[in-house]
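We emphasize that the prediction below concerns an isolated chain of 543 residues; any contacts that depend on oligomerization or on bound cofactors are therefore not represented. The input was used exactly as deposited, without trimming of termini.
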Amino acid sequence: MRARPHGQAVAGSLNADLSRSLLALWRSTLSQPGHHQRYLCRVTRLSLLALQRKLDCSALADDPRFQHPGWQRPLQQRLLQLWQAWQQPLQQWLNELDIGEPERANLRWLLDQLSAASSPSNSLLNPQIIAATRQSRGANLRRGARHLLIDQLTQRPLAMPEADNQYRAGHELALSQGEVVLRQPSFELIHYAPVTKQQYSKPLLIIPPPINRYYLLDLTPATSLVQHALQQGMAVYLISWRNPNPSHCNWGLSHYVRACREALMQVLARSGSTQASLLGVCSGGILASLLAGWLQARGRAACLSALSLLITPLDARLQTDLQRLAGSATQQRLRRQVWRQGYLDERSLGSLFTWMKPEQLLWQPAVQRYALGEALPSSPVHTWSHDNTRLPAQLVEDLLDLLTRDPLSRPGSLQIDGAHIDLTRLSLPSWHLAAERDHIVPWHNALPAGRLGGDCQFTLCRGGHVQGLLCPPGQARAGYQSAPTDAQDTPESWASRSSLTEGSWWPAWTDWLARHSGDLQPAVHPLADPALGPAPGHYVHQL
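Result of the prediction step, given as a token string:
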């Protein structure tokens, strides 16, 4: 199979949907000429006010891009206000266009990209760039040009910081002690060493997403959810997924659910327990839910004691940035491309998430690296976020199907490994987490709202997709809302009766989990197998 150049699969696929949307926009100029003329006049009027510095820019007061005092100078103020002048009417102009909703969603995404790209902070009139150029006599621009040339030659835009090799799994990251107790073609199973004299009798199996590496959950000793669970007396096992290659193109949801089932059976056998709890994160939460549904369909759900789902998209009916990016034409082209090469490559996957948050993940780093001539900051989170993995073609196909058909909303319509999945028949208790500012899984999409049976506890924490997870006790400005949820709940009805707690959600989760984890008993240490090796294992290093 001949692979496309890295990073082009998603970008190329987007062109089809955007072309259709731009064609719809052009047709609207013929059918709604008055609408376009009216808003053009409004933009012109606002631009004249901006040139006189009479436009209100108070909405930008808290924007981190414009905190330098130089933005108060007349030239920079005019630049800011002109940028605001064309932005302010855009949403209303777009909402009143006589076009289809899919085209409107694509145009909204395109306008967001144009807004981020045209920000005055990205220009050489940025006072921070001007100050750096004066102070260094242009050395910053020379360094930036060198960075740009190197990144172009190596085909690595916004390349990882040179110092990022100071953060490595098994050295500075993923330091929890444990042993690989099972290695299969698609995963390794890690059993972590206890840190308490007693542990709960019912073990915990953590299922991370197949996207990126697992060690976000064991990032550093101070920010390790794995360590926190161990300190609370949990017997912790974790799946580390293999980075697939073209020969694994047929690994889909059924394959990954079978792998989770095999890991669960191994956990039960090694612990001697008849029950275990599952913790699934993001797309790993989908796998955990489908595993629970498969066990329920086969009459074997009694082996589960509890289910925890963190930032897991259970509801695909609500519009998200990811759905706006994945229009029908985009999906068709993406399917053809991933089957041609056998997988969705890691750079395309990384670029997809970058374009969902361009101000923070694209333009600010670009200004820092290419205009200020600075090395991008190195951090554990930055290292993890750039440690992307590939996705097998069949898994991409299956995830797109979940996104478009939303089969979880129709009990029995999704078939996994020969079983029809009906999550409403589950009776085990579940605990759910979402994050307020999550741009990948908006919190409304993580609300169970009757999709799962059993008692459901829903928690909404402060922060975004990653920051919401990395919330150890003592974290500054941490807080969360929590309340039970039922089938009739809407996001508004749940929020109206939820209670606010200041601090980390980690203790609340482990307190809940302890109630479903059996009795305390002497801790069991993992049996080391020299042939398999210690945590973090082999697959986490696999390119």
